[in-house]
Amino acid sequence: MEILTDFFDTTGFASMQFGNAIMILIGIVFIVLAITKDYEPLLLVPIGMGAIVGNIPVSEGMALSVYDEGSVLHYLYFGVSRGVYPPLIFLGIGAMTDFSTMLSNPKLVLLGAAAQIGVFLTFLGALWLDFSPAQAGAIGIIGGADGPTAIFLASKLAPELMGPIAIAAYSYMALVPVIQPPIMRLLTSREERLIRMKPPRDVSRREKMIFPVAAFLISTLIAPGAVVLLGMLFFGNLLKESLVTERLARTARTAMIDIVTILLGFAVGASTQADTFLTKESLGIFGLGALAFAIATAGGVLFAKLMNLFLTEKINPLVGAAGVSAVPDSARVVQMVGQQEDPHNFLLMHAMAPNVAGVVGSAIAAGVLWSVLT
Amino acid sequence: MYAMPMLLEQTGPTLLGQVVPMLLDQSGAGSGSLANGLVVALVGLMIVFSALIFISLFIAALPHLLNKLAVIWPEVDEPVAHHESQVADDNAVLAAIGFVLHTEFQRQLDSQDSSEQSS
Predict the structure, then answer these.
(1) What is the model's pTM?
(2) Residue A176 CB: number of other CB atoms within 10 A?
(3) What is the rounded distance in angstroms from the CA atom of residue A269 to the CA atom of residue A118?
(4) Which of A78, A303, B29, B111 is the most exposed place for a label (fewest CB within 10 A)?
(5) Interface touch A211/B59, C-beta < 8 Å
(6) Average confidence (pLDDT) per 10 residues, chain A, 374 residues
(7) Which residues in chain B have their CB less than 8 angstroms from residue A106's CB?
(8) What is the spatial distance between Cα A110 and Cα B57, in angstroms, rounded to a whole number?
(9) CB-based contact A222 B52, cutoff 8 Å
């Protein structure tokens, strides 16, 4: 009888707390949303399952949780805590990104820069809510709308906020089609939304091959803190565009990125403990995250309108919203909103230019914040 | 060109890395001073814009540079490439052609049948 009692004391039922139960429920909700509503399933399914696994109470002395030295989860979490997984994901992203639209119309790159105002204004908002500067920097990067970048910077500046930051970033990326359109319509007139842009020019093979190396050198000599993320991004792109490493590029954008995504999502979910997630700081992070996306969208649209004051060939201001680097969702939103006004106005390819420029811009912003706030 | 290294030393993360800690130390980083954060935000945004402006200028200049380079080293129309990816594309193209042909033949047969029935 004593043996049974001792055994019962080691079960999860005996040590389950209210916070664990809530987190397991949250994990189930993520899985349901991912499967039924198609909300970022590639991330929310691993994160949701990881949250369930990570919140099963374990008895002391058994190295099972993500924070226990020697546990399997701890080794998987190494890639998150040390910022290994995000650069590998950027390698895959670079191997699947086509920078042609950006190369054919370079002024659209500035819209990717303008959208990063969401990062820095959110940083100020987090400081106002009494987060520390390092925490504010990690929260601000949610405005970059780039999951790997958010996780990378959180691991460097505020690992204790990794869970809510990652979940806020990916949740709002899935909600881009809901958040952006009202802001885009509010800030533009019907005449502006009807602007048609000249078709992009053809880009030569040499331009596509030279661009990754040159862009890497320019951006990282100005902001060395971005060397890891941008180095992998442009390396992946060079693998793709060189045409002599197609096998490596294919592996990077398929098997490798899928493996790392599984490990990253699962480990982030497993690290989401009740005592760090179910706090009022998390509410503040979720609120700031929504604000970040809204400000970034507004920043891109308004900057496009500002550029139009000086340009003879006008930019459709809707394209500015694609500076929010949720690739390719925000570009699709631009296409959708544009076609609601004119079904024959195809803005998708134009919107891809600030979309991919935003990836570079958010990585630079992360590098700057990391350099300054460490 | 000679001023560039000095300018780079005095701008961007180097200056930022020197000035901002001084500001944070003076007024206490722990209190999350908004004024200090504003400095970080403004300079950070300036750095992001600078980097992307330079990239944009480079992209704009690249076709002209390559045109000049093409005089010495002309670009070939067919780049060196492994053909394994084209093999997969050929199968997809053949399947698409087969589908179109089948659909077209079916349509012609259907129209032939309907004209025979009406006569």
Answers:
(1) 0.81
(2) 20
(3) 26
(4) B111
(5) yes
(6) 79 83 92 89 91 86 80 92 94 94 94 95 93 94 92 92 89 89 95 92 92 96 93 97 95 96 93 84 91 95 96 94 91 94 92 95 95 89
(7) 55-57, 59-60
(8) 11
(9) no
